[in-house]
Amino acid sequence: MHPIKDPQVDEFIEALESPAQEIVAQLRTLVFEAYPEMDEGFKWSKPSYAKEGLVCYMQTAKSHVNFGFYRGAELRDKSNLLEGDGKKMRHVRLNRTDEIQADELKLLIWDAVELNRK
């Protein structure tokens, strides 16, 4: 199955400046590598991904991108990548593309989808 990409997310990425543009583009690819059938949308002014419930999102700032998980506090974060102290959400802060730990992030994505299935 091929990913179904939301045109609003395409426009969002195109409007970003470097390095956020490259970070978000790589994260988007990573999400679809983890789950090609992930539902992509644009919620709360940011790219958001769902599979049997909300999974993750990308929030851009001037100098970094937060790759967040809606149920991040419940995830098994063996690599200690997640930041935040909210009751539910956690994020990974990325300043450059070389900070993207693809394998570890995919594990978090898979874990988040499994939580939605319970």
Automatic annotation (TrEMBL):
Pfam families: DUF1801 (PF08818). This is DUF1801 domain-containing protein. InterPro entries: YdhG-like. Residues 21-112 form the YdhG-like domain.
